[in-house]
Amino acid sequence: MTVSTVGGLCEAVLTVEAALGSRTAAWDAVLATVAAAHGLGGAPPGLADDVLAPWRDPAAAEELGVVHEALLDDRGRSGSFYTPAPLVDWLLDRALDRALDRALDRALDRAPDGPAPRVLDPACGTGNVLLAALHRLGPGAIDRVHGTDLDPVAVAIARLRLRLAVPDVEPAVLERTVRVADGLGEHPAAPYDAVVGNPPFLGQLRSRTAGRTSAGLSGAAGLGAYTDTSAAFLHHSLGLVRPGGVVALVQPLSVLAARDAGRVRAAVRERGAVTAFWTSTTPVFAGTPVRTCAPVVTVAAQQGPVPTWTGPDAVPGPDVVLPEGEWGALAAPALGVPPVRPRSAGVLGDLGSCHGDFRDQYYGLVPFVRDGGAGSPLVTSGLIDPARCRWGEAPTRFAKRSFGAPTVDLDALHADGTLSAWVARRLVPKVLVATQGRVIEAVVDRDGTWLPSVPVLSLSPPVDRLWHALAVLLAPPVVALAAARYAGTALSVTSIKLSAGQVADLPLPADTAAWDDAARLARLAQDAADDVRHAALLAVAERMCEAYDDHRALVWWTGRLEGRVRRPR
Predict the structure, then answer these.
(1) Which residue intervals of 38-150 are DSSP H helices?
(2) Residues sharing a CB contact under 8 Å with residue 119, sequence separation 6 or more, in sequence order
(3) Same-domain check for residues 57 and 202
(4) By residue range, what is the domain housing residue 40?
(5) Phi, psi of 279 (to 5 degrees)
(6) For the packed helices 530-548 and 554-561, what is the interaxial angle rounded to 10 degrees?
(7) pTM score, two decimals?
(8) 344-365 pLDDT tens trace
(9) Phi/psi class of residue 402: alpha, beta or left (left: φ > 0; alpha: ψ in -120 to 50)?
(10) Is 546 contained in some domain?
(11) pLDDT tens, residue by residue, 303-325
């Protein structure tokens, strides 16, 4: 149907809603009308003949899901964004092929389950995945296609779409298999051969569970309050499939590295393996900028190299060897991050502690920050370039105000006393690290006179190791490793976002002689004039590639450096 026809179908729903007094009643009437158009019941009485006319066209049934999605008033809050058909096909290719093979094995062994696998979509919406699965399995498998959703209208639409595909199915069968229920709750028909779908992205479980009892939330047990709901579905689904069964659920890209998804990744490692992976660096869901991925997990499998696919058309990519406990490498090919294996000895945290500050320090500084004057320079993330602090040279913002040279009045701050101890800990020689950038952006505060503005990180090695720490943060193999390891956590797919703990976990080089030389070059780079800074930074990068015995990221790092450091004319 055309866009204008879909608009007419939406308008018909709203007209019926005005006549009957509720959206639910309007959808009941629409579904009865669609069923009647296909010979599956009588049209609803009591409405003017022309009100439901657009829905009497048998072809209108194909637009039920589209219209329901278009009329959702709270789609962003509910996390309901329905899955494009090419992605549904990719998920089912991965999940059902293995399930069908296993079902055939059971049939040959005369197992009582028969040849058709049992499939679940735990957040089925209007049934896109269920209908596609049924088309693959055949009409005889209608009782083995299961779904749950909290939206009763979506469930009613899914049931009708399945009934239109298999007209002789008893309605009672669909009432058992496609239920209004929480997908994170109990599933009486488990275990399944495959769990496939696109669960809601709500940002955090706290939003979903606020004001609700714990009943029906067993799938969230043991997960943090800030775990994305979609990750909780992945975690829960691991316990809903047979050994050898497949879980293929769409996830936000942040599942690859977000701290609060760590328990979910650990559960996958304990119970099975990632056996395929899809991602897209551009949004594929209309109405949301969220970038997504789909890790395919096979329960009771051994982890091996993971085949990858990229983009809306699922273009095959390279197989990825998955580092233990890390998933970010799965998205690295799609993001253009080169694979690296730096030769290392120890981690940056061995040189000194790394700290990130919080809202108490951010808001506590507000009364004491002014533009210029005596005091301590306040350094924001936007003022940090690789081996360069632009304080006093470039404008910045703090606490919703613009500053040319934000300065903390230390006399007034110490007179107040609240932040005195914190200031004493920060006013030491250190390395300041911006938390998000195309490369890792860090600069040495050699005199210990700068104060970091949240979310700038402070790394405090011994004074004689400051430049060694900076050289590590400028090293292309380290930057590439961080870009892959923590893919999906930054605001942009081309940015690297690091926490204090993640900075502390970055590897140190094994070749200490090359590292010593690079530390000397890092100091020269920070002191370099603008017309030679680019060349000075490149010299550090090349020497650090030698220190790590890995040059594969040098060209990539140099390309990302463009825009942060001007080349000389």
Answers:
(1) 64-70, 75-78, 85-108, 128-137
(2) 95, 96, 99, 130, 133, 137, 144, 145, 146, 192, 193, 194, 195, 196
(3) no
(4) 3-71
(5) -150, 165
(6) 150
(7) 0.85
(8) 999 999 999 999 999 999 999 9
(9) beta
(10) yes
(11) 999 999 999 889 999 999 988 88
